[in-house]
Structures are given as structure tokens and as C-alpha cells.
Amino acid sequence: MIYLIKEIDVKVKTKFVGKIAKGYPLIAKEAIGNLNDLQEEGCLMRLVDENNRFLAKGYYGRQNKGYGWVLTQKENENIDQEFFNKIIQAAYDYRKPFFKDTETTAFRFFNGEGDGIGGIIIDHYEGNYVINWYSKGIYSYKDYIIKALQNTVTVKSIYQKKRFDTKGQYVEEDDFVLGVQPEFPLLVKENGVQFAVYLNDGAMVGVFLDQRDVRRTIRDKYAKGKTVLNMFSYTGAFSVFAALGGAVKTTSVDLANRSLPKTVEQFSVNGIDPESQNIVVMDVFNYFKYAVKKALKFDMVILDPPSFAKSKKFTFSAGKDYTNLLKDAIAITEDNGVIIASTNCSTFDMKKFKNFIEVAFREMGGKYELLEEFTLPADFRTTSDFKEGNYLKVVFIKKIKR
Ligand code: SAH
What we know:
The protein is α/β, with parallel strands linked by helices and about 400 residues long. Helices cover about 25% and strands about 30% of the residues. The protein has a seven-stranded mixed beta sheet, sandwiched between helices. Strands 1-3-4-5-2 form a five-stranded mixed beta sheet. It starts with 6 loop residues before the first strand and ends with a strand. S-adenosyl-L-homocysteine binds next to α7, β14 and α9.
């Protein structure tokens, strides 16, 4: 299959030339001098400086404030099937150890700009692949990319999530693209633990793969004999690992109704009686109040909020409110207990996150010790050219008796 991709010369404003020349992959709207020349998303942008010197080739695709991603810095490299084959093959080579591990069958196969193309993410679930397209622009390369995937790995099935604006018209779409559809729930494994996932059920399939190392650490090093409170629990993945690690009891709190049956299911597929655990559908901010009123305290409190959330009574923004969330957690954590603070917010870095922790403990008049910290696991490959791509920050904090 051959199709012609339109190529447009794009003048990069002087202020942005250095960054792009150094390898920064995101093409910001403000970097483009001749916005009016851009036509349909997907066209190639030949980025040049003000003296028409070649900088890089990228594609036009609108995603938040970005207007595209660099594909290559080589002037004579063609963006064709061979190009995509090479990129997908490299992603596969990098993850060979994951394909060999029979105890973990769900992992990220392609992590956007970390693997050479921004705006696309591919996850692997036991031979089934889920492609997330973040712009119409990258979606226009769909045939190339799917072909490259099929050329590289054995594909049982492919599902897709179009994560770009459909102009307000929501079309109830089947996410299934090709192959043989597995039965759902599909049971995948992570370090020997089962997860029930639904590849055909909206943007979230049931598990966030980036917390794999954190979950294993909770199970193997921290859970034994502990009471665990899992806030913003979703399908209860942290609770399942804590219970399997010997926690005496887990409490999972999430305000979404679906979290209850999903958490019951996650416990059940791992042979844990859900009745022996506590699953609460509630706003976490109400649960904190309830716990204080009932004088409940926990040995371990896990905080994994979304970057931004709005509930009936509260608005939570990680950048503004994380310190207060920590203060709520500190109040109901036992002395020598552990708070696991996590955020996927890319607007602040680890240093600032640790500052939230410092301020929270100071204002609560308590002492603490940082035990360990995590960022993205190896399969979530990132590039030093795009530091904001490494969004995950997780810190294990011990609350020390005053
Ligand atoms: N910790 C989870 C992922 C959390 S995703 C895991 O390990 O899989 C974020 C979750 O926060 C969503 O399930 C959402 O329903 C929930 N949520 C958002 N705001 C909330 C609030 N105020 N109270 C309780 N849950 C909330």
C-alpha cells in the first residue's frame, strides 16, 4: 500500500530552533511561524529555521497545546512503511525481556515519544494489543502502524481508543480492529497476580500498568500484618497486592459506582474472599472525615488521585491540593505507619512533590522519613529529550512518632 503524504515546509520561530535542533520532540503551536499553511492533520511538516535550514521532519497532529511530533532529524529519511517497521521493531527489541516473562503478561509495548513517535501508545495484554491514538494526525498513519505491528509480533487481536476530539459527536464505537476477539474479562498476569481486563469497555481497561513495581513492592515488602487504606482505588489493584502480601485487612475507597463490582471481581479472580475486605463507594474527602470521627487509623495509606477531579462537593487539583490530601492522610495513619503518595501529574516534578510532603508534615507538626521512591517502570520508556514524559512520581513515607 502506497499513499502520498503531503509535506509542508514549516518555519520554526527562532526562539524554538535550539530546542528542536537538540532533539525536543514536541512541536508547540507557538513554535510554528506559518500556522496558516497547515491543512489537514497527518500531513508531514518539514521543519526549517528562518534561513530555511532543515531541522527535523514531523507530523501535524493536534493534542492539547501540541501541534505535532518530530519523527526524524534525518533529512533524507522517508516516512514510509519501512520507517514504521523499524520503529516498531525497536520497541519490540527493547521489551524482549517482558515477552519472555511468563509471570507478567500485561505491559506497555510502545510509549509514545519515548519509543520515537509521540501521540501514540500501545499496550500489550497476552498477545492482544490496545492502541491509543491521541490525535487525528497520528490516526491517519493507522494502516502503516498496524501493518508494522503485525510484521513484528504475533497479534491475537487489536483494539483501539481514539482519544481525540470527535467534534462533540460521540459515536458509540466498537474498539475492536482486527484478529480474534478474546472473551472478557480477559485474565492477564502481573508478577503472578491476575487482573481481569476489558479491552472493549471505554478508555480505561481495568488496570494502570505503570504502577507495576509499586504494587510488587507493597506486596513483597510492606503489606504483611498491616491494615491498609487504598484511596482512589478504582478496581482495587493496590488492595489486591496488599491482601496477597498478607495485609490483615484492606479498605478500598472510590466514588465511582463501578469500582465496587470491579474490585469484587479483582479479589475473586485471585482467590480472595471480597467479603473479608472492605470496599467503600464514597468520596475520599468524606471518608477522611468519617475516619476521624470514628477514630479509625491505618498502618498504610495509599493515595493515588487523578491529576484533576471534580466531585459533587469537592474539586481536587494535584498541583494545588496534594499537600492537603497528605495532611488528611497523616491524620489517620498510625505512628510508624507508611503513606504511599502517588501522582501522575506532569505539571510538577519530584522535587516539588517532595516539597508538598515536607509542608504537609510540617503543618501537621510531625516527623517523617522517605523510604523509597518510584518513577515509570522500564516498559514505559521515556527519553531525556522530553523530561515531562516521565510523569509518575511515587514516594513511600514513614510517619515517625513525635
Ligand atoms: N489507584 C487506582 C487508580 C486511580 S484512578 C489504581 O491503582 O488502579 C482515579 C480514581 O479516582 C477513579 O477511579 C475515580 O473514580 C476516583 N476518584 C476521583 N475523585 C474521587 C474522589 N473525590 N473520591 C473518591 N474517588 C475519586
